[in-house]
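Hello forum,

I keep getting stuck at the same step: I have a sequence, I want structure tokens, and every attempt I make locally crashes halfway through. Rather than fight my setup again tonight, could one of you with a working pipeline run this one for me? It's a single chain of 344 residues.
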Amino acid sequence: MKLKVAIAGASGYVGGELARVLESHPNAELVTVTGNSSVGQTLGSLNPELKTYKDLVFVENTSENLAGHDVVFLALPHTQSAEVASWIEDDVLVLDCGADFRLESAEDFEKFYKSKHAGSWVYGMPELVREHNSKQRELLVGQKRIAVPGCNATAITLAFAPLLKAMLIDPTDLVSTLSVGTSGAGRNADVNQGEALASAIAYQVGGIHRHIPEVEQNLNRISESKVSLTFTPVLVPMFRGILAVNTAKLLPGADLGQVRNAFAEAYSAESFIEILPQGTFPNTADLELNNKVQIGIAVDQASGKVIVISAIDNLVKGTAGAALQSMNIALGLAEGTGLVGASK
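Reply #2:
Ran it on my machine without issues. Output:
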């Protein structure tokens, strides 16, 4: 018997992407989609690419409509998941694709989200390097409440973590500039409602982006010193994808060979992370509809800095694919079930 799945808030891009990846999952069946402004419409009317689930009809987002499922994905705006999560039985697996449960610090959450902190759940980034050579996936097994990472946080965290773990870079001056597709702004954003974006636009500049405390939380677990991140996202004229340029000062004695060894040690066994050959760098087109992260590495000898370029599909590895990957681990299924991009 297949797992019965619901998506709360399925009318947005994340909800539609969850439905798309679930169409390929042999052990799960999407049976309920909620979305108050879309009640009575079909899921396919907003997501014409769907096949299996195009005729599902949106129902109201209520506790009654979310009852009786094995898995519930929350694809709601930030700060709205906590209330909905409280409706759902403790034995149901709930995965929040918003930010409500990512941060452990109530102070950070209230500063960046201007809302009361609802607590933290286990963080759903399986490949995250932790102390004692462990990975985050070990904490996901058997869980019933999982906080899915932010898309930008995924691209940045996976780029810096191996270098901090190997103590090859200065943790106090990490810099990331990300080119982000317009889908990251959401279905209702002006840029996705009118004419296509015709210019690159920097936003959330100056240390105010909500993913900063999430990245720092991830990296502080393995850094010898407290990390400090300068992060600037730039909206660019493409629908899907994130290309992150991540730069850090190499510590004395560190070289390219040690850098590449650190990435090999951290990710050589990972099915969804690909370290590209030296001199080769990722592009977002290669990762569309794919759950893979690609990473390219260079060292600027003149400045003594390492440049790590990471790329993902923000809707797949950045959100929906990561959620499905975490679901598989929590339920004891093969981690790559239903996902495109596994290389091992």
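The domain at 3-148+317-331 is CATH 3.40.50.720 (Rossmann fold). If your local run keeps crashing, start a new thread with the error log.
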